[in-house]
Every structure is written in structure tokens, then in C-alpha cells.
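Hi R.,

As promised on Friday, here is the backbone we talked about, encoded as C-alpha cells. Could you run it through your design pipeline when you get a chance and send me back a sequence?
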């Protein structure tokens, strides 16, 4: 599947991170977010995995038709970047590319556990900071990222 979303700039992603902040986040919020992402993916017939986790707990996970076990591994690796850096995985990837650095050789992070590609976004709570990561895996990086941003914008506006 070819990417259909434009590649955001680092500044655009940083602005998204600043704007998409929860007032609170708990298990019920994770379920609502996960179901909203599943609904969006179904509308698009997107073969994705949706994963929402904290550093030590999976709060929501769904594998949609057409997704593969590899998508689960990509979701884990991208969310590990968010939970380590507290930034969107796409932003981290853009920053690494601009600095001509890689996850493995330059940062000493195992590329089997970390992937700085689009599709994982920090779950930020006002006054608290990053409490988790929401991840989509199965589309092109920019489309995984865009799906999360669209759903978060809708959810946080209502």
C-alpha cells in the first residue's frame, strides 16, 4: 500500500505533540481511543495493528484483517521509541536522519527492539507528561502517523 498522507515536518509533528494532550488518561480512555482507531481503520479497510501501552502494560491491542504478526513487532518497536524518548516515533526518525544517526550503531539501542519510523505517538497528560504510547502499524509510516493524529484530534476536540 503506497503512502497517501504527506510526510509531516519535524516542526509540524512537534506542534501536534503540543496540541494533542489529554486532561486525564486511564483504561477506559485507552479503550475508547483504541476503538476509535479500529473504527477508522475499518473505514479505510486498513490492514493494521492498533496498540496502546504504558511502559509496563498493554492497555489495548487489536489486529485487523490483513495485518500480519510482523505488524505486532513493528508496533512494539515503535512504541519503545516513544516510551524511551517521549516523542513521536516519526519525529525521532526525522531527527535521527537530520543528524545522520541510526538507532543501533549511534545510540546503542537494539534495532530489534526500537524502530524510529512513523506510527507511534506519545500519550501526554496535562500536568503529568507522557504516560504511554498509541501505535498503528501496517501502512506506510506517514499513514500510520496520520491515522493516529486524525483520531486524536477528533477525540480531544469532543
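Update: got your reply. Pasting your designed sequence below so it's all in one thread:
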Amino acid at each position: 500500500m503506497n503512502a497517501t498522507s504527506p510526510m509531516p515536518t519535524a516542526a509540524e509533528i512537534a506542534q501536534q505533540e503540543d496540541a494533542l494532550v489529554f486532561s486525564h488518561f486511564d483504561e477506559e480512555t485507552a479503550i475508547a481511543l483504541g476503538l476509535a482507531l479500529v473504527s477508522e481503520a475499518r473505514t479505510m479497510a486498513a490492514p493494521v495493528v492498533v496498540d496502546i501501552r504504558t511502559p509496563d502494560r498493554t492497555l489495548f491491542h487489536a489486529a485487523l484483517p490483513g495485518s500480519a504478526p510482523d505488524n505486532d513487532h513493528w508496533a512494539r518497536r515503535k512504541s519503545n521509541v516513544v516510551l524511551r524518548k517521549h516523542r513521536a516515533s516519526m519525529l525521532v526518525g526525522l531527527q535521527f536522519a537530520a543528524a545522520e544517526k541510526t538507532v543501533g550503531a549511534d545510540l546503542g539501542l537494539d534495532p530489534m527492539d526500537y524502530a524510529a519510523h512513523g506510527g507511534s505517538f506519545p500519550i501526554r497528560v496535562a500536568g503529568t507528561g507522557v504516560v504511554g504510547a498509541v501505535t498503528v502499524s501496517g501502512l506506510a509510516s506517514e499513514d500510520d502517523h496520520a491515522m493516529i493524529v486524525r483520531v486524536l484530534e477528533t477525540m480531544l476536540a469532543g
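One thing I noticed while checking it: The domain at 10-157 is CATH 3.30.450.150 (Beta-Lactamase).

Thanks again,
M.
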